[in-house]
Design brief:
The complex is a heterodimer of chains A (298) and B (202). With 298 residues, chain A is mainly alpha-helical. Among the domains of chain A are: 95 residues; 100 residues. Helix content of chain A is 78%, strand content 0%. The longest helix of chain A has 17 residues. Chain A is globular. Chain B is α/β, with parallel strands linked by helices and 202 residues long. Chain B has an 8-stranded mixed sheet with strand order 7-6-5-4-2-3-1-8. Chain B is globular. Chain B starts with 7 loop residues before the first strand and ends in a 13-residue tail after the last helix. Classes of the chains: A mainly alpha (298), B alpha/beta (202). Chains A and B meet through helix 11, helix 13, helix 15, helix 16 and helix 17 of A and helix 2 and helix 3 of B.
Chain lengths: 298, 202
């Protein structure tokens, strides 16, 4: 997960590099560190670096990391020839390396040679059963082939071993949401909140899922988690503010207004939204007002 | 007319291009959008579109509900209403209209019985450079009497208003215009970003 400062740092570097202002290596390193998927830009600028012998030798031992990064990006962009070339260079430098073996298997994946890729991954896992990246490739392959249930299966097996991998839990939750298996998604977010209670994104996602499942109890719980998101973000989360308003409106509808619901929090949320819009999106203030009005009348 | 069984759909160039660019801006995930317009005789004129979401949480209700209320409010003052839904699948070789898309389509159908669901045809998009076809790169689905979304095979029922729409789209793609598209997700993350994309076609 990327913090706001990292996000803006990345954006800055990306703009700089895209406009010919240099800083390609810093950009590529940041993308690598944050494990982001920016394959077309990585391919473009990484390849430019690699094709320049002076710049390449200036990288020192990081040169090989760059080959790996560019190869992966090339696979994502279906530039298989570029990927093959990078892999060849790495094979020559590190013969018999498992890390390069992984890239070779990914090349098979990119080509669509699923069975061969599966064999390659299985044999790599034989020697090192606890390789997280390779285990994850199995999930990715299943997903790419459209075998979503298979992906869920592999991901669950993966989480039995690597249960602290939060990104994997999120991935599983997101797959469940895409299949409208909201209760299962809720379970994943509960796990995440238990292990990382201070991360507002988990609270927000959990609230969204509960609201989607519906029902009075879930709506009331969702409202609590939107509230905790607001607390954890110092009131700066637009989605959570809207969420409070939605919950209040939905609960009122369900109970036909007959409950003693805490309306104060939704008044506060609405006011916070109005303040934010006045400041950052003034031409939408009156639209916001009519949106909020519609929700109260619903 | 009680269902979408007979009408045809004409999508304006700007609305069409916005949706395609949105999909291209987020190649690694599913995206969706709303179609705005009006019914004119036996033709549904799709004059505007709003790109909605690109996160993998497309199946969640809260952001969708906010978007529906907000967008309906905004466009009703222009005499336009929500007339359909656009969806692009996550995977290139997935040509199916999934349940999330169908459910959202159903919701829109409740308010507009000639509602259309447009699904991005990835193969057509990929072939755009070579084929120079003027047909839209989307598949049309309407709800038939069996209450399910069926693909409309006849290509004459979905057309772009301007025949040169694909050429203009290719032009936009070559100048990386998709990077300028703002969707509702972007707006929720930063409300200073405008989902109206007013500056896009200037």
């Amino acid at each position: 997960m990327v913090s706001k400062t990292e996000e803006s740092q990345l954006q800055q570097l990306e703009n700089q590099v895209e406009n010919g202002g240099g800083g390609a290596w810093e950009y590529l390193s940041l993308v690598r560190k944050l494990k982001l998927r920016r394959s077309d830009k990585v391919l473009k600028h990484g390849l430019a670096l690699l094709n320049d012998p002076k710049k390449r030798s200036a990288l020192g031992p990081d040169e090989w990391n760059l080959y790996e990064q560019v190869a992966t990006a090339a696979l994502d962009c279906q530039c298989l020839e570029v990927a093959k070339d990078c892999i060849k260079v790495l094979q020559k430098k590190f013969p018999g390396s498992k890390r390069v073996g992984r890239l070779e298997a990914m090349l098979l994946e990119a080509k669509g040679s699923w069975d061969e890729a599966e064999k390659a991954y299985s044999s790599l896992l034989e020697d090192n059963a606890l390789d997280q990246v390779i285990s994850m490739r199995r999930v990715a392959m299943a997903k790419a082939r459209g075998d979503i249930l298979g992906a869920i299966d592999w991901l669950n097996k993966y989480l039995e071993i690597f249960m602290a991998d939060h990104d994997a839990w999120r991935e599983l939750a997101e797959i469940y949401v895409s299949l409208q298996m909201y209760k299962q998604a809720a379970f994943c977010y509960e796990e995440l909140i238990l292990s990382q209670p201070m991360i507002p994104l988990h609270h927000l996602a959990y609230a969204d899922v509960l609201y989607t499942i519906g029902g009075l109890e879930n709506l009331q719980t969702a409202k609590k988690y939107y509230a905790s998101t607001i607390e954890l973000t110092g009131g700066k989360n637009t989605r959570a503010l809207y969420g409070i308003c939605l919950c209040t409106s939905a609960i009122a509808q369900l109970t036909k207004g007959k409950n003693n619901e805490d309306k104060e929090i939704s008044t506060l949320a609405a006011a916070a939204l109005e303040k934010d819009y006045k400041q950052s999106s003034p031409d939408k203030v009156s639209l916001l007002a009519s949106t909020l009005k519609t929700m109260k009348l619903q | 007319m009680s269902n979408g069984g007979d009408c045809s759909y004409v999508i304006g160039q700007n609305a069409y291009i916005k949706l395609a660019l949105h999909a291209l801006n987020h190649k690694t995930s599913a995206v969706n959008g709303l179609l705005l317009g009006r019914l004119s005789g036996e033709v549904v004129e799709i004059t505007e579109s709003v790109p909605l979401f690109h996160s993998s949480q497309i199946g969640l209700l809260p952001p969708l509900e906010i978007a529906l209320i907000t967008i309906e409010e905004y466009y009703s003052s222009q005499g336009l209403s929500i007339v359909g839904y656009f969806h692009a699948n996550e995977r290139f070789d997935d040509p199916e209209l999934g349940t999330v898309a169908r459910n959202i389509g159903d919701h829109i159908f409740r308010y507009f019985s000639q509602a259309a669901v447009l699904l991005l045809d990835n193969r057509k998009l990929g072939a755009l450079q070579n084929k120079k076809d003027s047909a839209p790169i989307m598949q049309l689905y309407t709800r038939d009497s069996s209450k399910s979304w069926k693909q409309v095979e006849s290509s004459s029922r979905l057309t772009t208003k301007e025949p040169s729409a694909n050429i203009v789209l290719l032009d936009f793609i070559s100048s990386d215009k998709q990077n300028d598209i703002v969707d509702f997700d972007d707006h929720l993350d930063d409300i200073s970003k405008d989902w109206l994309n007013l500056g896009l076609f200037k």
